[in-house]
Amino acid sequence: MDLNDIQELIKFVAKSGATEVDLEIDNIKISIKSPAKKRRGTQDEAPMVIHQDLTQVPAAITTLPPTIVNTANTEKNEIVEEKTDHLLTVKSSMIGTFYRGSSPETPPFVSVGDEINIGDTICIIEAMKLFNEIESEVSGKIVKILVDDSTPIEFDQPLFLVDPS
Amino acid sequence: MFSKILIANRGEIALRIIRTCKEMNIKTVAVYSTADKESLHVRFADEAVCIGPPSSSESYLNIPNIIAAAEITNSDAIHPGYGFLAENANFSKICGENDIKFIGASPAMINGMGDKASAKETMKKAGVPTIPGSKGIIKDFEECKKLALKIGYPVMLKATAGGGGKGMRLVWKEENLEDSWDSARKESKAAFGNDGMYMEKFIEDPRHIEIQIIGDKTGKACHLSERDCSIQRRHQKLAEETPSPFMTPKLREEMGNAAIKAAEAVKYEGVGTVEFLVDKYRKFFFMEMNTRIQVEHPITEEVVDFDLIKEQIKVASGIKISGQNYLPQLHAIECRINAEDPSKDFRPCPGLITNFHAPGGHGIRIDTHVYSNYMIPPFYDSMIAKVITVAQTREEAISKMKRALDEFVIEGIKTTIPFHQKLMLSKAFIEGKYTTKFMDDFKM
Q1: What is the pLDDT of residue B110?
Q2: Are β-strands B155-159 and B197-201 bridged in parallel, bridged antiparallel, or unpaired?
Q3: How many helices (H) and strands (E) does chain B have?
Q4: Are residues A103 and A134 in the same domain?
Q5: Is pLDDT above 60 for A41?
Q6: Residue A108 per-residue DSSP state
Q7: pLDDT band of A35, cuts 50, 70, 90
Q8: Cβ contacts of B49 on chain A, cutoff 8 Å
Q9: Pairing mode of beta strands B270-278, B207-215
Q10: How much is the pTM?
Q11: A20-24 contacts: CB < 8 A, separation 24 or more?
Q12: Are B64 and B83 in contact (CB under 8 A)?
């Protein structure tokens, strides 16, 4: 796989809308993370290639498409259309930068599958140099986290999907 | 020059600012409340950030949210437009503290000109003609009575923290003075939390003529001539024109120089407007100074051929002005189209615009943020479009305005287009013989 192939792959990932792709071809491991598009009118940003292991460059490029493991959606491998009608959406009441934990070293406040109660700290939103701990106004189970760590968010932006049952 | 400007406003002015920024290759960030999701300014900006729910206080007036939006988008300047935070000294200060250039006046300037009583004193000291009246705030009723006798009735009692006509009383005779003094102070305290009053001679049947000025960081200012804004209803302007039909070259020179004196006295930086009242003898008196871009700025743009938003941005980035004054080369008129029913006392009519077709052609300019199938939200002011016509003579500008208004289609809501059509046919307007009393006698 040469640089051109990698560039083509990056473009493919960006177009596919997938947010995270891990790829293994022969002796090469490539991991691509695409930042989620938050705001209307934002230019398409090139996904960041954050991890590349080139142990050996193969002589020929395979014509078969490589197996792409898409980790962006559900735990299962197939894309399941989730019934979200009964789920509550926790939306942002602030503008700033969303953080899942209080620092890069500490674990996130909540993860998918966690049970939360009203008043539990679920994330931090940083604005104007102030770190605001956001408390949950609902109780239930975290079904999905809709925003990546360290991304800018706006008012009313959906952050978490919670199952109140 | 700035690389990214956040526009802290909505509606037609937000779009107006975005257009100039695009021409200057400056990236734009729109902010919007949830009610303005489908607004044009949101669509045409490079980036947009939702900053709150529909209510203005929680969105367009929400300083922390707007600063946060500037932060996450890395904007290096904020343009406040007009209204909302445009003359909020606190906002100007906070922008500075957060390393964001506020494209408007400094906190000191806003405070200086916002306090009407002290603004007047500043102008007096600078040699700008002011309306005869009290020296600052009136101490007590005794002083009030003595002053009224000295100035001569009729007198106007005004609240120093006032605006929008609140805390104002017109007194024709001495026997009404005490009552008016008490009720004006009460009203002012309730509306602004401050019952300080000052007094002025009441100018009968004045014209409201304002001068556009621009000042740079070196303290130099120049003027771009006048706008006649006498057609007002409850102190809200309905239509404006330049040059003023009441103007003479001599008066323009005197008023222009007075406006420059006013601007340079406070070392004004940016675009601003000095408002004057002009009596029937063509004596003019300082009324107030607005430290922002005004709604009616397009008519000046059309007759001097300058993009005032561009000049405003240039000055804010440190570029010096030419130092020249600019006189009108053409004649321009603006009609403000509001979502109001002129036959029902200008009652607001928000709602869905089912059909929208703007007029066009030579000498017609439309500044608007609405379009077919746009839902006018009920949370903000009712202005939906400005029709501006420009021509070589006043007669032709009026003729173009008549034609443009006839062509303007806005269906689904009531608008003030019928009012403006009637205005263009009114004898007093056609003859240019109108004062701020005009709307008192006008009947739909």
Answers
A1: 93
A2: antiparallel
A3: 15, 20
A4: yes
A5: no
A6: P
A7: low
A8: 39, 95, 154-155
A9: antiparallel
A10: 0.79
A11: A20/A70, A20/A71, A20/A72, A21/A68, A21/A69, A21/A70, A21/A71, A22/A68, A22/A69, A22/A71, A23/A66, A23/A67, A23/A68, A23/A69, A24/A66, A24/A67
A12: no
Q: How far away is chain B from the Cα of A94, in angstroms, using its nearest Cα? A: 7
Per-residue pLDDT, averaged over A30-57, amounts to: 46
**B292 annotated active-site:** yes
Examine the domain organization and report whether A55 and A104 are in the same domain: no
pLDDT over threshold 70, residue A78: no
Instruction: Please report the pLDDT score of residue A2 as a whole number.
Output: 72
- Choosing from B227, B292, B336, B365, the catalytic residue is B292
Report which DSSP code applies to B133.
B
List of chain A residues whose C-beta atoms are within 8 Å of the C-beta of residue B45: 41
Contact A128 B52 (CB under 8 A): no
Beta carbons within 10 angstroms of residue B363's beta carbon: 20
Q: Which two tokens stand for residue A88?
A: 């509550």
Per-residue confidence (pLDDT) for residue B194, from 0 to 100 = 87
Instruction: With beta carbons less than 8 A apart as the criterion, state whether B317 and B5 touch.
Output: no
A57 and A20 share one domain:
yes
Sequence-distant (≥ 6) Cβ neighbours of residue B29 within 8 angstroms? B4, B5, B6, B7, B45, B46, B47, B48, B49, B69, B70, B73, B75
Q: Where are the domains of chain B?
A: 4-103, 132-201, 207-441
Confidence of residue A65 (pLDDT cuts 50, 70, 90): very low
Q: Are the beta carbons of A22 and A71 closer than 8 angstroms? A: yes
pLDDT in the model for residue A82: 54
Q: Which residues of A touch B99 (CB under 8 A)?
A: none
* pLDDT reading at A73 higher than 80: no
Please report the pLDDT score of residue B163 as a whole number. Answer: 66
Tokens of A19: 């947010």
B69/A41 Cβ within 8 A:
no
From A69's Cα to the closest Cα of chain B, the distance in A is 32
CA neighbor of B377 nearest in space, from B30, B29, B59: B59
Report how far residue B320's alpha carbon sits from residue B335's, in angstroms, rounded to the nearest whole number.
33
Q: CATH assignment of B207-441?
A: 3.30.470.20
Low-confidence ranges of chain B (pLDDT < 70): 163-164
pLDDT reported for residue A25: 73
Which residues of chain A have a CB within 8 Å of the CB of B42? 40-41
Among chain A residues, the shortest Cα distance to B44 is held by A41
The pLDDT, as a whole number, for residue B160 is 85
H helices present in B266-321, as ranges: 297-304, 308-316
Topology of the domain covering B132-201 = Dna Ligase; domain 1 (3.30.1490)
Residue of A nearest to B65 (CA): A95
Q: What is the pLDDT of residue A19?
A: 67
Q: Residue B287: phi, psi to the nearest 5?
A: -110, -60
Q: What is the ipTM of this complex?
A: 0.71
